[in-house]
Model the fold of this input.
Amino acid sequence: MDATIWLGSAFALFAIGLYCVTKRNMIRILLGVEMILNSGNLAFIYFAAQHAAIGVVDPVGQSIVFMSIITGGCVVAVGLALIVNAYKHFKTTDSRELRRLRW
Amino acid sequence: MVIPASMYFLFSPMLIVLTGLLAERTGQPKLRDVVAVIVSALGVVFAWTLYNALQAAPDKILVFSLGGGPPLGASFEIDMMGMFMAFSATILGFFATVYSYNYMEHDTRLTEYYTLLSALVVGMLGVAFAGDFFTLFIFWELMGIASYALVSFRKNLPGPIEAGFKYMIMGSVGSTVLFFGIALVYGITGTLNFAQVSTVIHGQPMNLWYYLIFALFVIGFGVKSAIVPMHTWLPDAHPEAPSPISAMLSGVLIETGLYALTRVLFILFEPSFFKLTIAVFAALTMTLGNMMALRQDDVKRMLAYSSIAQIGYMLIGVSTGLTYGLMGTLLHILNHSLMKGLAFLSIGSVVYATGTRDINKLQGVGKMMPFTTLAVIVSFLGLGGVPGTNGFISKFILFNAALGAGMLILAILGVLNSALSMVYYLRVIMVLLSGEAEEGMTAKEAPILMVGVTLVMAVLIIVLGLYPSPVVGIASSASEALIDNISKYIGVILS
Done:
């Protein structure tokens, strides 16, 4: 029952994130990426709690979640910088307008 | 085990930041460029020192753990296969940095540039030496973030921003999908260490979860290594990046993705499980890459599609699942890093001098830039697999391995594709050599440092083509390392 709730939420977040990535707004796409990352984080936290063989929650699962939050923050920083620059060039945050490079 | 001093090379981007800030303050910006070149040369020394340490090690494997032993600590596992990638990355990184000294001198923000370039190399080294999924993921992201920023480095132009955004989204979706896959592996095994994961998973009956993990890993690594359905970022990102960065991306970054995919697949699954899928991807990737390259007029975009095709050839070796095929893959990774690196650098010199990337406008440039054109010709013939260049050796081994594994169709497709690819390579060579230059087209030979780098690489390509046995020997032991060393690594970790 526990597994269904936690893993179910993780997969749901994953699906919502993938859905967001297909949208037009650049900021929404970036948030979609973060959601996929957080679905992984959620799964890790759940599994870490399951592997509590030594009486405490497994620290490996927790530490990789901390590191992934940090790298996720870096990716968002780069992404937002790119969005600001794209807005300067194209005067829009609609990703479909970025279609100069095709074929 | 004591961590050798050379491993501290992984902190080198910080050194470049500090010297860069100091150099800008004191008004000596060239100091930073020189330090960056020296640091990238130290990278080759680092790889060489580790290689010697590895040769001296009893089991031909070095394992270092940080923060306690596994499963808690993060670990580096250095073997011949990782060394092979490390040599490709550091050597091409050195050439790209030397080339940047002249190529980037009109750009600003060079402290950021050299730092990111160094971080890219360090990220690849980390991926090559990773001994667990934790280390792999951190360095994977380091490599990714550095490359997103470098692709869109010239942010005053719309092209790099668009290509960079596309690459950033696809790449980060790829790495987050990979992260989810790692979470599932962790859920099944309860550990992240490669050796422990391998002991738990091998021999288990395949169920739905394993298929899901396989799909997540193929998508996650496949985005970075531009396997065909996930390749669409590459033909945008490679032409828009500065030429040394195109060389790095095309020469080693996509191969690092392929390397990580190969390594993880062999850790998790038996070759019989993934052979057919990878073979289909190989056929798709090389055919589509070559077909699309045929219709390009932008020379850097053509090279980008050609990189996709070359990834397809490398996948042939993985799909055979034999040490001989893997040896071909590894050899092709090293050879491709030299050939495609040289192709992008020498074409970069042409673009630097003429200011255009359109193939049809490059007529008669060969007479104005003889040395650069020589380098272009050597690299393109190598990419096409002409005997006498190193590209021939590795392609021969790859197709031979496909025949040996009973994959006749794949071998035939490979040879046909290889022949087809000559069409667009020869077209560029013909345009460069023949015809008179257009009105107003002036180009003079690139600065001495750029010409020097390209000529040294051209000589390396021919030397490795005529005298391949040392490299083939190393590649052979590296491919054996992939299969044997899992058990050795398990022995070291679990003892």
